[in-house]
Write a structure and sequence with these properties.
There is one protein chain. This protein is of the alpha+beta class and 489 residues long. Helix content is 67%, strand content 7%. The radius of gyration is 36 Å and the shape is elongated. The two termini are 33 Å apart.
Length: 489
């Protein structure tokens, strides 16, 4: 008695292990959806719209003489109106389609004007010229801010940031996504340095860049970076697989932790030491993010290759190499799941056993190459005739097995007639043109009450042999365990 219980327990454990292994394999077969790249593509437009709102607000501030709208912090730098116009141009260009059309030409023009403008500003700074006068826009308000001895001009760090953003946008226009990603990554670092300067109280870090300007540059940088979410290291970080999740956690930690630690030490240090701490935080943060991006990219390449090999191995383990149909093992796994579902819903299920008539004669007469052609042609016919969610497999040799879900006796008869007639009309080189048509014998088992798959297959197999005995090229129907009104109970 004890031995019998042990055997029963052993069989139960083995069954559970097989079920778990099959579930793991099915999970590997399902490619995970890359949702985050699509999300970031949408975020790109939203960030651009936000940058447009900031730019328009700043220009309205000058027009209405509301200083807070262009100078967020008293006694700190303001956003120059030219800066707001350049930001507006770049923001609008991101929203325009990257296509050879009128809008595409407008996009290129906006980016080009922005790049030329900031280049002129850089030339003015380097050679002390004034090709871009400080009061080129809103002359009266410019006079006001200069009179109050507060700096308000397109500073060198702002000009460099917008030049880099323009280059990133041009790279996107010419479909150089990898280059766009690298340039956008560099562009984002400039407003981040300004943020650290404002947070740590280090004026040398933000120089004459307004907080509004830093925010706009940050939004535009991320908007351009988000356009490359399907490429390179950024795509690897957004991967739905384990490597991507780890990279995202590392990236966030690599930015938040150094910043927080630096903020703590700055509160305990003098101005000189604070500058060193700020530079150290900037270096560590961007070095970590860069290394994480590179490692995530490499890891994703390796992991993608591994997933591809794994999927091919699982595919090979679950399908017949000649016909591409499910093999016997996979048919049992999926068939049992379908039967359990049918038992819950009360829908009828049918199992068909199909055997090619006189297949040995085909092999012996025309050769195995022709026999293989017959197997492939029959499998293709079954796939064509059956519904997409019906299961079909090569059971072994010249035998095929089909599981039809949510059906009736009339539906099974219609399918069987279509299978036999379609296969009979097949044209196989070196066989049907010289000998006889290809025919099959079908055994159909309509399951009208709860029954396991193995038992149903035995009934269908017996019905198929009955069709053989009755002369082949026909279907023999059988009902397994008849129940009331043909429904599962």
């Amino acid at each position: 008695m004890a031995k019998k219980n042990v055997n029963k327990l052993s069989n139960s454990v083995t069954h559970d292990i097989d079920q778990l292994a099959s579930s793991i394999e099915q999970e590997y077969l399902k490619s995970k959806a890359w949702k985050l790249p699509g999300v970031f593509s949408l975020i790109s437009f939203q960030l651009s719209i936000l940058a447009i709102l900031f730019s328009v607000t700043i220009l309205l501030g000058y027009w209405m003489e509301v200083e807070f709208l262009y100078r967020p912090l008293a006694l700190e730098p303001a956003t120059h109106p030219v800066t707001a116009v350049i930001a507006l141009f770049l923001s609008v260009s991101i929203l325009l389609p990257n296509q050879p059309s009128l809008l595409g030409c407008l996009k290129t023009a906006l980016v080009s004007v922005s790049a030329i403008t900031v280049l002129v500003a850089i030339i003015d700074y380097v050679f002390s010229t004034e090709f871009l006068p400080p009061n080129i826009i809103f002359e009266r308000e410019q006079g006001y801010v200069h009179a109050s001895a507060l700096g308000n001009y397109l500073s060198i760090n702002t000009a460099i940031m917008f030049l880099i953003l323009s280059c990133a946008s041009l790279a996107g226009i010419y479909d150089r996504k990898s280059l766009q990603q690298i340039i956008a990554y560099v562009a984002i670092s400039i407003p981040c340095i300004s943020f650290i300067g404002y947070a740590y109280g280090l004026a040398s870090f933000y120089s004459h860049m307004s907080l509004y300007t830093a925010v706009i540059g940050f939004l535009l940088g991320w908007s351009l970076l988000a356009q490359t979410s399907d490429y390179g290291g950024f795509k690897a970080i957004l991967s739905p697989y384990l490597g991507g999740r780890i990279a995202r956690f590392q990236s966030i930690s690599g930015m938040v932790l150094p910043f927080s630690v630096g903020l703590f030490f700055v509160s305990l240090s003098n101005e000189l030491n604070s500058s060193y701490i700020g530079m150290f935080v900037i270096f560590v943060t961007w070095f970590l993010v860069l290394m994480i991006s590179i490692s995530a990219y490499v890891q994703e390449k390796i992991d993608a290759a591994r997933r591809e090999v794994t999927e091919k191995l699982i595919q090979a383990a679950n399908t017949d190499p000649l016909t591409g149909l499910y093999n016997r093992r996979q048919f049992f796994y999926l068939g049992k799941k379908e039967l359990r579902r049918a038992h819950r819903t009360g829908n009828a299920v049918a199992v068909l056993m199909i055997d090619i008539d006189n297949f040995k004669t085909i092999n012996d007469t025309a050769g195995h190459d022709v026999g293989d052609q017959v197997l492939v042609a029959v499998s293709n016919t079954l796939t064509l005739v059956l519904r997409e969610f019906d299961l079909v497999c090569r059971f072994g040799g010249e035998e095929f097995c089909v599981l039809i879900t949510d059906t009736t006796k009339e539906g099974v008869e219609e399918v069987c007639n279509k299978i036999t007639s379609t296969i009979r009309s097949l044209s196989i080189n070196n066989w049907t043109d010289q000998h006889s048509p290809v025919t099959v014998s079908v055994g159909a088992c309509l399951i009208e009450k709860m029954i396991d798959l193995e038992s149903a297959l035995k009934v269908a197999d017996a019905a198929m042999y009955q069709a053989k005995n009755l002369g082949k090229n026909q279907t023999y129907y059988s009902v397994a365990f008849s129940g009331a009104q043909g429904s599962l109970q």
